């Protein structure tokens, strides 16, 4: 589902220990309008988001609302504070 055609790529390292955890992240991203695509990888404990128009902070806040711990994040290859 990854698309390198989008203007922005956001990468998140998220503590996810089960399918319920990754499912929660998947649900909030699915409801976020303006994303070109995204992938949630339970095994790697990551989420990658591709978008032309949604701000990094908007996606970060959506993921934070799941209650999962975000260990690190990048926006377009640049480390971001979480």
Automatic annotation (TrEMBL):
<dbReference type="InterPro" id="IPR036163">
    <property type="entry name" value="HMA_dom_sf"/>
</dbReference>
<keyword id="KW-0813">Transport</keyword>
<dbReference type="InterPro" id="IPR051881">
    <property type="entry name" value="Copper_transport_ATOX1-like"/>
</dbReference>
<dbReference type="GO" id="GO:0046872">
    <property type="term" value="F:metal ion binding"/>
</dbReference>
<keyword id="KW-0187">Copper transport</keyword>
<protein>
    <submittedName>
        <fullName>Cytosolic copper metallochaperone</fullName>
    </submittedName>
</protein>
<dbReference type="GO" id="GO:0005829">
    <property type="term" value="C:cytosol"/>
</dbReference>
<keyword id="KW-0479">Metal-binding</keyword>
<dbReference type="Pfam" id="PF00403">
    <property type="entry name" value="HMA"/>
</dbReference>
<keyword id="KW-0143">Chaperone</keyword>
<dbReference type="GO" id="GO:0016531">
    <property type="term" value="F:copper chaperone activity"/>
</dbReference>
<dbReference type="InterPro" id="IPR006121">
    <property type="entry name" value="HMA_dom"/>
</dbReference>
<keyword id="KW-0186">Copper</keyword>
<dbReference type="GO" id="GO:0006825">
    <property type="term" value="P:copper ion transport"/>
</dbReference>
<feature type="domain" description="HMA">
    <location>
        <begin position="7"/>
        <end position="71"/>
    </location>
</feature>
<comment type="similarity">
    <text>Belongs to the ATX1 family.</text>
</comment>
<keyword id="KW-0406">Ion transport</keyword>
């Amino acid at each position: 589902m990854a698309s390198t055609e989008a203007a922005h790529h956001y990468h998140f390292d998220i503590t996810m220990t089960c399918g319920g955890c990754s499912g929660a992240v998947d649900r909030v991203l699915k409801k976020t309008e303006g994303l070109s695509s995204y992938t949630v990888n339970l095994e790697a404990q990551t989420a990658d988001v591709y978008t032309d128009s949604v701000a990094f902070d908007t996606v970060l806040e959506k993921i934070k609302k799941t209650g999962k711990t975000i260990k690190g994040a990048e926006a377009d290859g640049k480390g971001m504070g979480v």
